[in-house]
């Protein structure tokens, strides 16, 4: 499965000698016309090709996620590591490997370019000499969701969508509301009724139409599916459209750039829908094709809440897909995703990287938030705190060695989760 996954990104760029010149000329012609190097969309499961010029959700044949494919051979002629030195500190610095045509203005609030911070004091307590935190709370709307929505909303607007809808556990709703408002589009946000109050207020104050549902994010998705045809909504769910993953993959590009093009030994990533985990792996493969990095990859660890751990359960059982997790519950709302459409991709990545999957309970997340705050000055979201707790657990079991370089992703700000801390 690992070789199949990597081949997904390499396949379009390999040409036999007979077709080399003709294909290269066609690609360059298209790139000059559109001002970009995306050639098409491909299904991550069955490989069926889809054209990018119209709005797309899942594969029309098998209902699995679609990925944009780029001619990296052509892009690499103008897109170099050295060229990045003079570019803006935002995700749009990687424009050649993003889907928006060059003559289209991005819908942007300054997303990306977040700091990679050395967590020396917390690391010293654990005996880890190279511990880093990628702090995504410094994005617009205070979470990593800004990355995916910036690119997805930009493409949705470019392709003619006027009404966007998303099921969300919180932060994705705030991001869609913000970018839809910026783009002049309607946003329809469906949230579980017990979503953190800050997220609900944020969406409403940004002009979105908010619907609260008695249930989980999966129930919100089902309601959108039932109504979207009649309402004229384009669905922006995680991995149910092709472009949020492209915004999230810039996490991988930024991380490599910030570490001098040497990837860390280990990445700990809080996993709900898993778009960031999947996107980074896509970025690593693209960068290898570009010649920016070698074949070595970090060991990827998925961190989930003990009350909602479908990926952990499937990983431990050796399954290729993850069954829906029953009675999902956790205060880390971003981790409360009982069934992810990209489950098979995540499980492939964890195994290909020789990583793993681990759970953390809510009480430990909340406790360790204060420990991180008092040592590093970061008020991390519970999802980010879960990764710090997971690090302790993985060190104790020997799955991570203290001499390895480790990067933790803090995906949002603790400010959004004040309800979680009210009793502590």
Protein model, in words:
With 424 residues, the protein is of the alpha/beta class. The protein folds into three domains: 2-97, no CATH class; 116-143 and 246-421, 3-Layer(aba) Sandwich (Rossmann fold); 145-235, Rossmann fold (3-Layer(aba) Sandwich), CATH 3.40.50. 40% of the residues lie in helices and 15% in strands. It contains 15 helices and 13 strands. The chain has helices at 2-10, 20-34, 72-75, 120-126, 145-158, 171-183, 197-205, 217-231, 244-258, 275-290, 310-317, 343-352, 362-376, 382-396, 418-421, and strands at 38-43, 49-50, 66-70, 116-118, 130-135, 163-167, 186-192, 209-213, 234-235, 266-270, 299-305, 356-360, 405-410. The protein has a six-stranded mixed beta sheet with strand order 4-5-13-10-11-12, with helices on both faces. Strands 8-7-6-9 form a four-stranded parallel beta sheet, sandwiched between helices. A three-stranded antiparallel beta sheet has the order 2-1-3. A hairpin with a 5-residue loop joins β1 and β2 (49-50). α5 (145-158) packs parallel to α6 (171-183) and α5 (145-158) crosses α9 (244-258). The longest helix is centred in the middle third of the chain and has 16 residues, at 275-290. It is globular, with a radius of gyration of 20 Å. It starts with a helix and ends with a helix.
């Amino acid at each position: 499965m690992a070789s199949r996954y990597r081949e997904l990104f390499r396949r379009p760029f390999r040409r036999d000698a007979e077709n080399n010149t003709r294909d290269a000329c066609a690609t360059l012609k298209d790139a000059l016309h559109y001002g970009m190097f995306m050639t098409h969309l491909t299904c991550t499961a069955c490989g069926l090709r889809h054209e990018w010029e119209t709005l797309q959700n899942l594969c029309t044949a098998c209902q699995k996620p679609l990925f944009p494919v780029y001619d990296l051979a052509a892009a690499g002629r103008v897109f170099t590591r050295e060229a990045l030195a003079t570019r803006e500190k935002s995700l749009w610095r990687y424009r050649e490997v993003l889907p928006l045509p060059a003559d289209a203005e991005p819908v942007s609030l300054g997303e990306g370019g977040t700091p990679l911070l050395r967590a020396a004091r917390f690391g010293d307590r654990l005996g880890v000499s190279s511990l880093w935190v990628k702090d995504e709370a410094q994005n617009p709307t205070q979470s990593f969701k800004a990355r995916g929505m910036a690119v997805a909303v930009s493409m949705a607007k470019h392709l003619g969508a006027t009404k966007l809808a998303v099921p969300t556990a919180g932060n994705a709703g705030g991001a869609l509301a913000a970018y839809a408002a910026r783009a002049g589009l309607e946003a329809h946000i469906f949230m579980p009724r017990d979503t953190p109050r800050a997220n609900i207020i944020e969406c409403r104050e940004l002009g979105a139409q908010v619907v609260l549902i008695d249930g989980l994010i999966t129930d919100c998705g089902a309601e959108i599916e039932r109504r979207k045809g009649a309402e004229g909504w384009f669905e922006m769910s995680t991995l149910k459209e092709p472009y949020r993953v492209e915004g999230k993959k810039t996490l991988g590009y930024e991380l490599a750039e910030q570490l001098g093009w040497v990837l860390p030994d280990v990445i700990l990533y809080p996993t709900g829908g898993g778009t960031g985990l999947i996107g980074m792996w896509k970025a690593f493969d693209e960068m290898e094709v570009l010649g920016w990095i070698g074949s070595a990859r970090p060991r990827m660890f998925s961190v989930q809440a003990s009350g909602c751990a479908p990926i952990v359960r499937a990983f431990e059982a050796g399954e290729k897909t993850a069954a829906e997790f029953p009675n999902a519950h956790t205060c880390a709302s971003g981790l409360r995703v009982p069934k992810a459409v990209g489950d098979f991709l995540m499980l492939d990545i964890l195994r290909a990287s020789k990583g793993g999957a681990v759970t953390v309970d809510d009480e430990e997340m909340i406790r360790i938030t204060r420990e991180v705050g008092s040592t590093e000055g970061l008020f991390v979201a519970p999802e980010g705190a879960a990764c710090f707790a997971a690090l302790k657990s993985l060190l104790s079991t020997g799955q991570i060695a203290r001499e390895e370089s480790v990067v933790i992703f803090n995906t949002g700000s603790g400010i959004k989760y004040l309800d979680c801390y009210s009793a502590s």
